Amino acid sequence: MTGAKKKKKSMLWGKMHTPQCEDIIQWCRRRLPILDWAPHYNLKENLLPDTVSGIMLAVQQVTQGLAFAVLSSVHPVFGLYGSLFPAIIYAIFGMGRHVATGTFALTSLISANAVERIVPQNIQNLTTPSNTSVMGLSDFEMQRIHVAVAVSFLGGVIQVAMFVLQLGSATFVVTEPVISAMTTGAATHVVTSQVKYLLGMKMPYISGPLGFFYIYAYVFENIKSVRLEALLLSLLSIVVLVLVKELNEQFKRKIKVVLPVDLVLIIAASFACYCTNMENTYGLEVVGHIPQGIPSPRAPPMNILSAVITEAFGVALVGYVASLALAQGSAKKFKYSIDDNQEFLAHGLSNIVSSFFFCIPSAAAMGRTAGLYSTGAKTQVACLISCIFVLIVIYAIGPLLYWLPMCVLASIIVVGLKGMLIQFRDLKKYWNVDKIDCGIWVSTYVFTICFAANVGLLFGVVCTIAIVIGRFPRAMTLSIKNMKEMEFKVKTEMDSETLQQVKIISINNPLVFLNAKKFYTDLMNIIQKENSCNQPLDDISKCEQNTLLNSLSNGNCNEEVSQSCPNEKCSLILDCSGFTFFDYSGVSMLVEVYMDCKGRSVDVLLAHCTASLIKGMTYYGNLDSEKPIFFESVSAAISHIHSNKNLSKLSDHSEV
């Protein structure tokens, strides 16, 4: 008997721990998403739009690569490398089909803190060009890129460690208002860092707490040192960029290919500077020598990792949060799913592998991702095609950019941050939906401005959690003492045909960012399980009330929702009397449920809604104004369904 148990136990152990071929294939597809979509790539339908998008993306990658390398306090050529290798790695491991990874303003700004602290500007005169340096650059430039590379490497290691710990599921605590405020504040910092180039001023590097205000104080104290030529050229560049991009946006439906104004401006400015010798005549600062080719890979310096750990954490968290927000927006827009933990792995490997090729920290950028949207990109093939053109620039066109004025490059950075800066408009919707979220936005932005992006992000998360913990004790569960009477009323007043189409679901907890995803998952599971067209009448007539959101654990969205009856429309009544409070994420999830069910021919009616909930949902989403969806009670909602059923029957008889 004992031998049989041991044999059975060993067989179970063998089945449990012996990986099957199918398991390995499934694991590879899960960790290498390119193996999932590449074999099914449709050349006929997708290659042309991906090629056009790739060309346009390459223009953005080159211009932003040069600009963000300067922002990171390293030589511009390293920005070109940072536009190449991270995009290739993310295309293999990333799940966002429209996410353009490369150099990023926020991570460059954080990296610059470490570069300027460890290799300050005042030691430049002590170094000389060396024949042993990479690409003929000075020892000073190589010391600086080594610091930036160390930040990139350690930041990638932190991201991979978070992937191993499966911390992607904890990102739900980073709410949309916090991300919006943090990115807006960081964009304001980036614009401030470019003021010295826009004005043509010589300015020492200023950072640290309240550094934002010290920069403007220095500018006003030394306002006489502004170069008028640089200021005029900056203003002209900004006006041209904004005007042409607005025209591209207005006429994007009529023209298939938008004008690459960034590239045109770079070529025109470089040519004008070369012909007029602006560098010597007017004293304008130019990009300078850009080496050709790609250097041999080299391991990041391990001896300075401990000195850059603060910046590495900032790069890991800020870069991931900003990139994940873009990936989630892309997935929501184009109806596919992403794995938060897999994104940790993709961005972590992008930073680690790229650090061996002298790349500054990378992440996804809003401007490039929006560019992929507008040009009709289909897959990550667009990013891979852009890498081909970036290679052409590195090997052939790069040296021609010697004469590019720095004030023009700064103008491109400022205009490229427009998408982040206009997030100030989000304040209005947060105020109308949930004033506490509006307060979190303002406070997070202020902390980001006064300190740094990573500090603002941390403050926003802590503040959000503290407020939710303070609000949850006021939550009351829903009383169900009158449910039997309501069920009896439904059975007696309504015919069985209509009764089969009604589902009444009760929500007995607040709906906030902590449980918004689980609310969606639970609701879709109930619809999938119970809203079957072929259920027996006895089972349907029960009209059981289902309670949701009994825990605050995060859930994953289940996209496989059963379709409604082909001939009859189903109705779903959400009893919202259990909503003690809600936030912006909760309202957006309710609107998403409404729109999702509407697309599946399921009418959604909300009962016992507070005035603030009605106002928030009406303001947030384009709800159907022709059909009432808010009712004072569940009985009123049922009566509405009943009256609509009778009207449809009368119209059918009149047609006959």
UniProtKB/TrEMBL annotation:
The chain crosses the membrane at residues 145-165, 203-220, 226-245, 257-277, 304-327, 379-397, 402-424, 444-469. It holds the Pfam family Sulfate_transp. InterPro entries: SLC26A/SulP_dom (IPR011547), SLC26A/SulP_fam (IPR001902), STAS_dom (IPR002645), STAS_dom_sf (IPR036513). The keyword Coiled coil does not apply. Its main location: membrane. Residues 492-641 form the STAS domain. Keywords: Anion exchange, Cell membrane, Endosome, Ion transport, Membrane, Transmembrane, Transmembrane helix, Transport. One of its GO terms (biological process) is carboxylic acid transmembrane transport. It comes from the Eukaryota. It catalyses: thiocyanate(in) = thiocyanate(out); oxalate(in) = oxalate(out); hydrogencarbonate(in) = hydrogencarbonate(out); D-gluconate(in) = D-gluconate(out). It is a multi-pass membrane protein. One of its GO terms (cellular component) is basolateral plasma membrane. One of its GO terms (molecular function) is chloride:bicarbonate antiporter activity. Gene3D superfamilies: STAS domain. This is Anion exchange transporter. The gene is SLC26A7.
